[in-house]
Specification:
By secondary structure, the protein is mainly alpha-helical. It is built from seven helices and no strands. The relative contact order is 0.12.
Length: 166
């Protein structure tokens, strides 16, 4: 693949699917500097994966797979080295999707998603993005019935926590 073609594909994917990557980043990294680091890591992995993309699956399936697996690996590395990391107060970051007023419900949802394990967190992000069980199954490499069971359990857990908070 020529470098110019690779650059065109990368630019196109970044333009059209930036929101998808930002969702994954926000669900896995919580401090602004960590979000920036993870976003850069996802972008790098996406760049490196372009020659391997064969269009067997939907573009978004490929992008989610790359973003989620990058987030899994990043999260494992960060847990090993987390003792020395503290968020930098006042640091501006470029990952803010919109400068809108914060929504307490959305903050609650992201906090709850953050408490889930890797696969459940990924299932929840994909579900919120409107993917079918089949698409989620393809992206995560688990069965459709496993996706359904996980969604049922997550919804039940979130409903119980929402009632507790009332």
């Amino acid at each position: 693949m020529r470098e110019s073609e690779r650059q065109r594909i990368f630019d196109d994917w970044m333009r059209r699917h930036r929101g998808l990557m930002l969702k994954v980043v926000r669900a896995w990294a919580f401090a602004p500097d960590d979000q920036e680091d993870l976003f850069q890591e996802v972008a790098l992995q996406l760049w490196q994966s372009i020659p391997n993309y064969r269009a067997d699956a939907a573009e978004t399936t490929w992008l989610y797979r790359v973003a989620l697996y990058t987030a899994f690996a990043w999260n494992r590395r960060e847990r090993k080295h987390s003792s020395g990391h503290l968020p930098l107060d006042g640091m501006e970051h470029t990952l803010r999707a919109t400068p809108a007023v914060r929504d307490d419900r959305l903050d609650w949802l992201y906090r709850e998603i953050a408490e889930l394990g890797e696969v459940d967190r990924s299932v929840m992000l994909l579900m919120l993005d409107g993917h079918s069980y089949r698409e989620m199954s393809d992206i995560l490499g688990i069965s459709e019935s496993n996706v359904g069971v996980r969604i049922h359990r997550i919804r039940k857990r979130f409903a119980a926590k929402a009632i507790e908070g009332v």
